[in-house]
Known about the structure:
Blueprint (H helix, E strand, L loop, with lengths): L2 H14 L1 H8 L9 E4 L4 E3 L13 E4 L2 H6 L3 E2 L10 H18 L6 H8 L3 H12 L3 H18 L4 H7 L5 H12 L3 H5 L6 E9 L2 E7 L4 E7 L2 H11 L4 E4 L2 H15 L15 H11 L7 E2 H7 L6 H9 L12 E2 L12 H22 L1
Parallel strand pairs: 2-4, 5-8, 9-10
Antiparallel strand pairs: 1-2, 1-3, 5-6, 6-7
Amino acid sequence: MTATKAKSQRTAATLSDPRWAAVLARDASADGTFCYSVETTGVYCRPSCGSRQAKPENVRFHGTCEEAERAGFRPCKRCKPDQLPLGQRHAAKIAEACRLLEASESSMSLEELAEKAGMSAYHFHRTFKHVTGLTPRMYAAAHREGKLRNLLESGQEVTQAIYEAGYQSGSRFYENSDRILGMSPTRYRSGGEGLEIHFAVGQCALGAILVAQSERGICAILIGDDPDTLVRDLQGRFPKATFVGGDAEFEKTVALVVGFVEAPRLGLNLPLDIRGTAFQQRVWQALCDIPPGQTVTYTEIARRIGMPSAVRAVAAACAANALAVAIPCHRVVRIGGGLSGYRWGVDRKRSLLEIEADLQEKMDNRKA
């Protein structure tokens, strides 16, 4: 076989191999699935390697790094195919930083965390936010808040729980305790003991509906098929609160909520008792900014709150919403408009969107 013919065959073999397209595109998603070697340099690379493009007649494909090394090739010093992909290495460093934040009894500075990760402060901050969806400061705060809730729920004394959770100053914590817990620490520790909640269960176009109100405002709007399940859900949120069944005055409030659920564009002119973490409340505020009759994606909500990589965390915050329709998580859809992830069922989500679309159409017709 002549050299020219052999070269043509090697070129044809490379060009017909579907892996060549990944190499041309420097496709990072293909990293780890195969590697390729270049006969003229004697090295093997990841598909995403940014080195100068090799000629197809000099390329060979290998299923693993070991296979490439057995063939006599050495790893590229630029893309380091014998190490974990950069994204995985970053994820491992951020996971370690998260463990440090969780284990630290005092706050750690950005510079300290970055130094331990072997990164600049700027690069570490960007990478941490990309991987977790939160800044290091926000992650540490969320961990403290979660730890505090667990300590209080286990019966820990309030002052001791505050300091064990990592708060350096009791006075600073009490300034934000209402936002963090939705009530005083003592009341939270006792499962809402002493908290009086009025509630009633009724029917609406979407099924059974439970409306509950604390001294601060409407604290739950729950929708489902079984009224008893809705009541148990409410009791689980405030295990030691005093529940007061609907009286004539509260029935008026329930009627207003039912009317709002069945025609959201009317608005709900009632105070709300919104309980959630700082991140959840940012998401919920972004949801409340979506006009009736419109939808946005989870990705768009993440972008609006300044955390474009926190799409899963946004979805989790939507699922944690206990104020159906008042916090309109039904207006959040998948990319492409698909419906999913509604706490009270996809069928109800579809019905709410249809109701709003019909009302919007009627309003448009009146304007015309």
